Amino acid sequence: MSNYDIVIIGAGLGGLLCANILAKEGMSVCVIEKNKKPGGSIQSFVKDKAIFNTGLNYTEGLGDGEVLNRYFKYFNILDKIKIKQMDVDGFERISFEGDITEYPIAQGYDNFVEKLSAHFPAERNKLKMYIQKMRTVCNSFPFYTFSNLDEINSKTDFFNLSAHDYVSNLTSNPKLNNILAGMSSLYAGDKENTPMYVHSLINYTFIGSAWRFVDGGSQLAARISDEIKKHGGDILLNQEVVQIGGNKQADFVELKNGEKIFAKQFISNVHPKITLNLVNKNISKAAFKARIDSLDNSIGMFSMYIVLNENQFPYLNYNHHHFNAVNTWTTDYNEKEWPEHYMLYTPPNSQSEKWANALIIITYMKYDEVKKWAHTFVEQRGDEYLDFKRRKAEKLLDFVEKKFPQLRTKIRSYYSSTPLTYRDYTNTHEGSAYGIIKKFHDPISTIIKPKTRIRNLYFTGQNLNMHGVLGVSIGAALTCAELVGSQYLFNKIKNS
Fold this sequence. Notes:
Elements: E1 2-9, H1 13-24, E2 29-32, E3 44-47, E4 50-53, E5 59-60, H2 67-75, E6 83-85, E7 92-96, E8 99-105, H3 109-117, H4 124-138, H5 142-145, H6 163-168, H7 174-180, H8 196-208, E9 210-213, H9 218-230, E10 234-236, E11 241-245, E12 252-255, E13 260-268, H10 272-278, H11 286-293, E14 300-308, E15 319-323, E16 341-345, E17 358-365, H12 383-403, E18 411-417, H13 419-426, H14 443-446, E19 457-459, H15 468-484, H16 486-494
Parallel strand pairs: 1-2, 1-13, 2-10, 7-15, 13-19
Antiparallel strand pairs: 3-4, 5-9, 6-9, 7-8, 11-12, 12-13, 14-17, 14-18, 15-16, 16-17
Helix pairs in contact: 1-9, 1-15, 3-4, 4-8, 15-16
């Protein structure tokens, strides 16, 4: 029987960062992960000697003095990771079927305006207004700007502002409005739900600067794990938590092997719905569980992991978003017309800056399309499922080859995944790409606070305020602030 100050369930990014923070504060910390390696959706894997990312495609705000740069310095990992800045004049390229132009999303706020104004000269002032609007929204979050905690902007109208409505009505040019929403697959942009603050925090920070991890995102999990261990923390891998139990409060977790691990406080980096299913009934809060269970998940993804023939496909230092129509809000796709869009990118490798050895293509996939196999697990789903994936992959390749002719001739092999794959590897409810949907028309119910209704139990991870490396980093800080004090932790990160 073991006893700790803090037990963290799940070694995804949020769990690892919480362990990093709290171990540095001198607490005894144990992270428990059911998989064989840490990282969750920031894991990488190797196929035919090519490195692929599970979910971490790229990240934002790592430029000198920028927000994620400051967090990574505090986590003491900034100088320990291999990163590469993406194309400054177009780290994203947006294109539409029937239009040969690739519209650039550039880094640097003035540069962003200049590059798009070259295509839409009459909209320069509207583009400046767009940047200013996003800046105002982002500046309302103190753990983003590191303005004083007692100077929090009390104006929170942006929580009730629709991203779709704002962007779609920004100018009288529908193509430009859709280009500004062209990165919506980074947050599963849903025109019926997505708040402007989600759009702003992601787009504004990426426009500041955009970066890739060379040779995969697993290095991020590895370096954070090193820091945890350096400060005396434990990481238990291949161990599954099956119960959170106690007497009127969370006192212990029970592992699948029957071992119980006790702690003063518990943090779950697992999806809140899955977490609350682990809570013993004698400490569960029925109303709280019912509220969490009622929340909707964001859509999942169908992903293709392509190993390329040597020196056949150039390394692209940008992401390509392509749409079959001038409509970049495609989460509610028509299954018969699938796919309506894709994001394509080449992961950077240290072997060559000129040629790519891998290619990843991502598009939306609804859980309902794979629900019939929900009772199965990875590598055990049967021939019908494999045939389903093959047909989907070939249909996606047909669409991609319209923009990248003869791509198939450059492919050595490919692998694919569905929301079920993501569910099984990352323990994400229904294989949701970005966790629980945030809703501008009901913001309070869809923002989950770190402190739960169960004493001693806290949440962290992408299901709180925001997803992504930046969102989860801020979320980890907010969770740990509940334990060590907001002003104290705020000052430590700010001054690191």
